Amino acid sequence: MEPPEHARAAAPGAAGDPLVGRLLDGRYRIGSRVARGGMASVYEATDTRLDRTVAVKVMHPGLGDDQAFAERFVREARAAARLNHPHVVGVYDQGDDTSDGSDTVFLVMEYVPGHTLRDVVRKEAPMPPRRALALLEPVVSALAAAHRAGLVHRDVKPENVLIADEAHGGSIKVADFGLAKAVSADTQHTATGGVLIGTVSYLAPELVVDGRSDARADVYAAGVVLYELLTGSKPHEGESPIQVAYRHVHHDVPMPSAVQPAVPDYVDALVARATSRDRDQRPADATVLLHHLHRVEQALREGLDSDPELAADLMPRRTPVAAEAPGPDDTAPEPFDAGALALLSEVDPRDSGLVDDGSPDRTTALERHPLPGAAATAAAAVGATTPVPDTATTAMPVRRDDRAPGRPAARPGGRAARPAGRAPSRVSPVPTTARRRSVKGPLLLVLALLLVVGVGVGAWWFGWARYTTTPGVLGLDEAAATARLDKAGLDAEAGDPAYSENVAPGLVITTDPKPGAKVLDGGTVSLVLSLGPERYDVPQLAGKTEDEAQDALAATNLAFGSSKGRWSETVPEGQVIRTSPQAGTTLKPGATVDLVLSRGRKPIEVRDWTGKDLDDARAALEKRKLVVEVTSEEFSDTVPEGVVISQDPTTGTLYRGDTVSFVVSKGPELVEVPRVRAMGVEAATDLLEGLGFQVTTEESDNYLGLGFVFSSDPGQGEQVPKGSTITLFLI
C-alpha cells in the first residue's frame, strides 16, 4: 500500500514512507498519510500555491505503468470534477509527476478532516430511523446529482461516506468516484478486461448475474446501507464472497423490523423498495429515492408508529422469482448459471492491484470467463473449497447444428439418416469370377503379427517395465524417507519446505512424483518437508506511529484490526502504547491485531478555589495528581483563617504533576492589650490608638472626676484583633 518511492527524506513520524515531504508537480507538499487502498494512498498535503490544505490521492508504484489503471485514475478526476454538489468531495486537480524518473499519478481533492460513516455504524448502530435517514439523506442527495449528470457511482458503501468533524461543520460527503462510469446502454464492467470491482456486500443482483449496472445499482447499495444503519449488521452474510453474492441474487433483503421491532412499517417498505431484486421495482434513480426518503422522514417527524397507506405505496409489487433452494443451510452457495458463477473470484488486492478502500469489508473481483466449459472455469476461479458439478447449471442449452444445408444428420453409428418418406435403395447382385490364391496374404499376416508384438514389447518397456512406483513416504522424517526410496532404487532430494497445520515439523508432507506415481528407475523423488503450522509473532510496536505499526503487521502476515486511544503520561501522542494481543504472541497468518494509541497527556481542568478552605482544595487537587504549594500566609481582616486568599493559576488546563500555588489567610492580626490603669485618659488613648485600636471612654461606678484610667475592656494582656474597640473606664 505504499506510495511511490522517492529519495527525499520522510517527515518525522513517517519513517519508511519517502513520499512524505515530497513536492509533487512543484506545488503540492505531501504530509502524513490519512488513508490507503489497493490502488492508491491518500495523504494530507499543502497546496503551496494557494496555501490551503488538500487531500492528494497517489496511485501505488507500478500501477501508473498499466494504461487501464491510469485511465481509470484520470476518469475518477473527470467524473468527480463534473459534480458541483455540497455533499460530493470536490476534485481540484490531476497530474503525473516524473521528477524522480518514475510516473507518480495523483489526484488533488478536497480535504475532509473527520471520520467515515463506517465509524458511525460501529459506534451507533442499530440507530433510530430518524437518525439513520438523517445520515443517509445527504448521501442520496449526492447520488441524485451524479445520476442527473449521467454518472453511476458503482461503489456506494459506508467507507466512501466522509463526515467532517464538528469544527468543520460536520458535513457529509460522498467520496471515491474511482469506479464511476458514464451511463450508457452498454454500461457493464467497472474496469477494463471484463473485471468488475466492488464490495460484494453492496452489489446489486444484476451486477452479479450479468455485470450490467445503471443508477438503480446505486439505489440498491443505498438501501443496503440504510438496512445496516437500522440494524447494525449487513443483510446477507456468508463465509465467502460467493455465498454473499448468491444470497443477493436469490434472497430478498430482510425487513429491518425483523431485527429491530421498533422500526415502522413504512421504513421497512422503503428498504424493501430500494433493495428489490427486480430492478424494475426499485426507484429509477437516486432522485426518486430521495423523494421517497423525504416522505418517510415526514412521517417520522409526525411521530407515526405505523402508516399502512404509505407502506403499501412504497412496498414493491411481488413478481414471480425462482424458488429458493431447499436445504438446512441456505448460506451454502448453490450452482449459479455457469457464466454467472464464473464471475466470482476473490482476489488479493495486493496481488491484483484492484481497488480497495481500506475498509473492513473485503474487495471482490468478479470476472467473466467466456470460454467453453464455463462450469469447470468457474470451479477453477473459486478454488477447491467450492466445487461445481458438471451438471450444476441453469444456463439455457444452446443447440448447435453444424450440418450443411440440406444434408441429413449423422446417426450415432456414423451413417447418415434416411430422408423421411424414402424407401431404402436396392442393391443388385454383381457377378464375380474366382481368383488365384496369393502367398502374399500369409506373409503380410506374419509381418503384422511381428509388428504388433514389437509394438507391444516396446510399449511394455517404455510405458511400464522401465518405471518404478513411487513408494509412500508421507509422515516419515527425511532420513527414513530417503532410506525407503534408496531401497526402491530411487534418489531423494529435499524440495522447498512448506507449512502444515497437521504434519509435525521435519516430516514429509508430499512428494514429487506423488506416492503411487510412476518414476524412471534410478529417478529422483523430491521430498517436501513440513515446517509445522504457519505462525507469526506479534512484533514489538510500542513507540511506533499507527502507519508504521500497520506496515510492520503487514510485513509479518498479520492484519490490522482497529485502534483506540488512551491517555498516557509517558508515550507521545499518536504512538502505540501496546497491542492486543500483546507483543510476542504467536498467531496464525491473517490474524488481526488491535492497537492502543496514545492520546498524549490527560488534561486536567483547574477550578478557582479562592474563598474556599485550603484543606478542601488540597484534597481535591492531590486526588487528581496535582501538586499543592502554599506560597505564603497573610493576615486578613476579611478572610477567615485557613481560607484561600488567592490562587495561581486560577483556572485553565494543567497536566499530572503540575503545581497550583495558594496564598492562605492567617485571619486578622492579634495585638496584646497593654497596661493603661492609672494612666491619664489622653496618654492611654494615644497608646491604644497607636497600636491600631479604637478607643471609647466611660465613667466607672466610683467616678471622682480625676481623669485617670481605672480599668479597660478588654483588659490588660488579652490578645484581640487589630482594630478592635477598647473601652476605658475613668475614675
From TrEMBL:
Residues 464-531, 532-599, 600-666, 667-731 form the PASTA domain. The chain crosses the membrane at residues 443-464. Residues 347-370, 398-434 are annotated as: Disordered. It comes from the Bacteria. Keywords: ATP-binding, Kinase, Membrane, Nucleotide-binding, Serine/threonine-protein kinase, Transferase, Transmembrane, Transmembrane helix. Its EC number is 2.7.11.1. InterPro entries: Kinase-like_dom_sf (IPR011009), PASTA_dom (IPR005543), Prot_kinase_dom (IPR000719), Ser/Thr_kinase_AS (IPR008271). Residues 406-429 have a biased composition (Low complexity). SMART domains: PASTA, S_TKc. It catalyses: L-seryl-[protein] + ATP = O-phospho-L-seryl-[protein] + ADP + H(+); L-threonyl-[protein] + ATP = O-phospho-L-threonyl-[protein] + ADP + H(+). Residues 28-294 form the Protein kinase domain. Pfam families: PASTA, Pkinase. This is non-specific serine/threonine protein kinase. It comes from Nocardioides zeicaulis.
